[in-house]
TrEMBL record, chain B:
Entry GO terms, CC: cytosol
Organism: Methanogenium organophilum
Protein name: P-II family nitrogen regulator
Coiled-coil region list: none
Family: Belongs to the P(II) protein family.
Signal peptide positions on this chain: none
Amino acid sequence: MAISSGDTAFIIICTAMVMLMTPAVGLFYGGMVRRKNIISMVGLAFVAFAVVSIQWVVFGYSLAFGPDIGGFIGGLDHFMLAGVGLDGDGIPDILFMVFQLVFAALTLAIITSGVAERVKLSSFIVFGLLWTTLVYDPLAHWAWGGGWASQLGALDFAGGTVVHISSGFGALALCLVLGVRKGFGKYGMEPYNVPITLLGAALLWFGWFGFNAGSELAADGIAANAFVVTNTAAAAGALAWMIASWIRGKPATLGIVSGAIAGLVAITPAAGFVDVKASIVIGALAGLVCYSALLWRQKKGIDESLDAWAVHGVGGLFGALATGIFATAVIGGVDGLIYGNVNQFLIQLLDAVAAMVYAFVVTYILAKVVDKVMGLRVDEKEEYVGLDISQHGETVEA
Amino acid sequence: MKKIEAIIRPEKLEDVKAALDEGGHFAMTVTNVHGRGAQRGISLQFRGRKVNVDLIPKVKVEMVVEDDEVAEITQIIRRVAVTGEAGDGKIFIIPIEMSIPVRDKA
């Protein structure tokens, strides 16, 4: 097959943009934790990126995109990138591999929300390696590597199930295993540096264009459509969350950018299948749905306080279903529920629920195992001093 | 007049403020500080290696009050800011010669 230089150039740039999303998640979370944990939070994102970068080239890519085994996982034929060369269909195989790598790394960074301010670094590295292997790789295979969901015809353009449902529900499982931060609910744990969070959100919004438009794997009309609906949904989500929180009090910037990310999450699976009209609805509803999920979480006293579950988990779930509702054949060749295709909606429902249950259950088991073997949580003194000093020997304190 | 200078845990500040509000004591100056007591900070154990965190973040609350308010205020702070662990802080009472509002006509 011929290589297209335009497509190749475009996907190299998109890959670099998506790479930036991983430290961006670190900054987004880092601004929301207390002063003594900001370095740790950004550091976890870098650690996630490094760990997955190595795991992916050694065997992760092969598990996700190797020859199908029972619809569940890929074979190890591409171990150490065997057979992943410089040529390919449109873009080089090795470029497709690294484009997928940055998605896998980002997903592990999102899950750090569930361990904020209390995880032992060494345990997180072990957990992360297991998680990306046993949760991310199978899910990526299901959706994109020829697994059961793709055989069924489930639509996931850029990773609603693979990236967002998996990390969101994974974060929820993790934080239930870890327990709440000491003092949670007893005294305030206000975000230490909101501007850092806003910076992270800006970089995420920017990177997301590479994430969604790049998922077309070509520089064409669908990529352009994905770019536009991505931006539109982000804007609609930001405004919806802002208005909803304004009614309850002051519209915090934290809510405005959370709404943008909710919109970005929800449009992710749909970006290559829906039109701009639908993206306004999807984004706005995502803002409201994720905001409600956050309020519910707070009421229940669950300490998943950086809200990967409320924004990525619930947003991803909503996005997967919205894809089955709003998809139009005019854009991506498949119609959804509003165009009379009930079947597609049911496939999306099955796919999303399967991803949700699998991610939650397997994450819970992995977290329990790592906790039993080496302890997932720092001791009380270390938590009090903060992870910056106790895990990294660094501090932003005067 | 006395100055009450209370060094407390940062996470207790909100509770202390609320309790002082209830007692009708509002005026205060709050500063973020770092310090250590007799324990010389907190020592963390790493596989037998000791790592000492020398200066721990605290909050200093300063209030200038009439002599007869001192007992009540110190009681409130001690009741609310205590955890029973080392590092709960200290309260100092300092005599004040005069207190002059800036706004008064000179």
